[in-house]
Design goal:
By secondary structure, the chain is of the alpha/beta class. It is globular and about 80 Å long. The structure holds pyridoxal-5'-phosphate. The site of pyridoxal-5'-phosphate (PLP) has 11 residues, from helix 3.
């Protein structure tokens, strides 16, 4: 029976966690800090649970360097529903905030007590102006845009870019910003992208220039960071919402983290106002467990929060703070980059055996997607699925696990999440070299 340290696991999520975190949380599940009770057995409203929540927020704000209090504060929310839940929650929140801004403007222009006229004006503006912008760069942003269309109607969705159009019908390249067809930022309720496309191995290289400096009146900047969370430095103030499911870089499935600009929460409209607009804007009211303002007001404890899952995330965040000290998330970024470079350099070096799927300009540091070529053939269009199977089988014999590509695209995917160690990467690189020569 292999031990944890004998296995190198490159699965795309759920993904490996640092062994000390797993060991600590295993103890906590049985008997948390010698209290005689496990963490999943105690109240989510207990002082213990509150401390875990506070510790998680504090560690995250240190790592990403953003304020939890004061004028430019961000709230950190923990919810359930996964990344997919946030596809719905983010568009509903941003559309609600847009509507509330328009309502306030109408009241300012028309005066108090003119409810019917205010409703009429906002209805007209929704019909004539409202858009939500999506940068569709891979399977997950595509799904998010489809969910938005399902909830509020496709006429409000502007796909500002569809990366497949620039890459022969397949994801793998991010079109240049000057080609994006963004809506006027004052009319747009949000601009959304997936920062790291887990299935397609595509990562936004950096924060888009054209979205810098957006203000309170502009469409909200929303990024899904489920699969590259806490893996590189960013300016939180550039974003309105950052979200991510925990089960890759943060912890285990069951909680989702949301970092949201506090000033936006104050714009949450009343449900009865939105109800009166349901003829032009269906399903814009989120279920209460997905309403950010409600969750923030209740310190993520509106309903039962899985504290054990949160505890794992807290331990992960605290261990990053401790390991990288003043470098904060940049320390993790340097390590992630070094590991990814080792793998990509090897794939590029043995280009007669391997073909990296995404374009060099958008290669993900987290999910490294490649195909194995037929022997002796240089045509990049010919992948050899039998050789890919052989690659996976020989990898597994060496305890290199979880390398199969996503079922929708095939090939090989090596996920290089934060808990994948350098020795594991070195073992994978050795396998790549050996297979290129002999496999
Ligand atoms: C980038 C990204 N977004 C969203 C999701 C969906 O997450 P969940 O399964 O937690 O709903 C995933 C899942 O792998 C993902 O990789």
């Amino acid at each position: 029976m292999p031990t944890r340290d004998q296995i190198s696991y490159f699965g795309a999520g759920p993904a490996p966690l640092p062994t000390p975190v797993i060991e600590e949380s295993a103890k906590a599940l049985v008997n948390f800090e010698d209290t005689g009770l496990g963490l999943s057995e105690i109240s989510h409203r207990s002082p213990t649970a509150n401390k875990i929540l506070a510790d998680a927020k504090s560690a995250l704000s240190i790592l990403y360097d953003f304020p939890l209090e004061g004028e430019n504060a961000y709230d950190v929310l923990f919810m359930q529903g996964g990344g997919t839940g946030e596809f719905s929650a983010s568009v509903q929140a941003c559309v609600g905030w847009w509507v509330e801004r328009r309502r306030r403007r109408a009241v300012a222009d028309l005066g108090e007590g003119k409810e019917d006229e205010v409703i009429e004006r906002v209805r007209k503006e929704i019909k004539e102006e409202l858009k939500v912008d999506y940068l569709v760069t891979g399977s997950w942003s595509l799904k998010a845009s489809q969910e938005a269309a399902r909830l509020i109607g496709s006429k409000y969705i502007n796909v500002a870019t569809d990366a497949r159009k620039a890459n022969n019908g397949k994801f793998g390249k991010i079109p240049q910003e000057k080609e994006w067809q963004l809506t006027d930022s004052k009319k747009s309720a949000m601009v959304y992208w997936c920062d790291n496309e887990t299935v397609d191995g595509v990562e936004m290289p950096s924060f888009p220039e054209s979205l810098k400096g957006r203000g309170e009146d502009d469409g909200v900047v929303v990024a899904d960071m489920s699969s590259n969370f806490v893996s590189r430095k960013l300016n939180v103030k550039d974003y309105g919402i950052i979200f991510g499911g925990a089960q890759k870089n943060l912890g285990i499935a069951g909680i989702t983290v949301i970092i949201v600009r506090r000033s936006l929460l104050a714009l949450t409209p009343k449900a009865d106002f939105l109800q009166r607009l349901s003829d032009v804007l269906p399903s814009a009211i989120p279920p209460v467990v997905f309403e950010f303002a409600t969750i923030a007001k209740n310190n993520s404890l509106y309903n039962t929060l899985p504290i054990f899952n949160l505890y794992i995330a807290t331990l992960v965040l605290q261990s990053l703070v401790k390991t990288f000290e003043e470098k904060k998330v940049s320390g993790q970024e340097e390590l992630a980059n070094r590991k990814a470079e080792l793998i990509y350099d090897t794939l590029d070096k043995y280009a007669d055996a391997y073909h990296v799927v995404p374009d060099k300009s958008a290669r993900s540091r987290m999910n490294i997607c490649f195909r194995i070529k037929s022997r002796g053939e240089g045509d990049p269009g010919t992948w050899d699925e039998a050789r890919e199977k052989a690659f996976l089988a020989s990898a597994e014999k060496k305890n290199l696990m979880g390398l199969k590509g996503h079922r929708s695209v095939g090939g090989i995917r090596a996920s290089n999440y934060n808990a994948v160690t350098m020795p594991s990467v070195q073992k994978l690189v050795a396998h790549l070299v050996e297979f290129a020569a002999t496999g």
